[in-house]
UniProtKB/TrEMBL annotation:
Keywords: Ribonucleoprotein, Ribosomal protein, RNA-binding, rRNA-binding. It holds the Pfam family Ribosomal_S20p. Residues 1-25 are annotated as: Disordered. Binds directly to 16S ribosomal RNA. The gene is rpsT. This is Small ribosomal subunit protein bS20. GO terms for biological process: translation. One of its GO terms (cellular component) is cytosol.
Length: 84
């Protein structure tokens, strides 16, 4: 454990940021998984699930948690599954 006050605060803030970032990444993965499972099952609400997944990917990308190219690649793969 750090002894310096600023280092102690830095540990607290980095833990809070890590928790927030982890939850946002998890939520993004969950929405993508829901879309992929619905696409495999041939569900009716694919457009709504695609919009949710695309929005989640955009939000994670805007926070800097994933790279812009990865976000575009993931959305393109989802759109390809939607078109099938």
């Amino acid at each position: 454990m750090p002894n310096i006050e600023s280092a102690i605060k830095r540990v607290r803030t980095s833990e809070a940021a890590n928790a927030k970032n982890s939850s946002q990444m998890s939520a993004m993965r969950t929405t993508v998984k829901k879309f992929e499972e619905a696409a495999a099952a041939g569900s009716d609400n694919l457009n709504d699930l695609y919009k949710e997944a695309s929005r989640a990917i955009d939000m994670v990308e805007s926070k800097g948690l994933i790279h812009k190219n990865k976000a575009n690649r993931d959305k393109a793969r989802l759109a390809k599954k939607l078109a099938k």
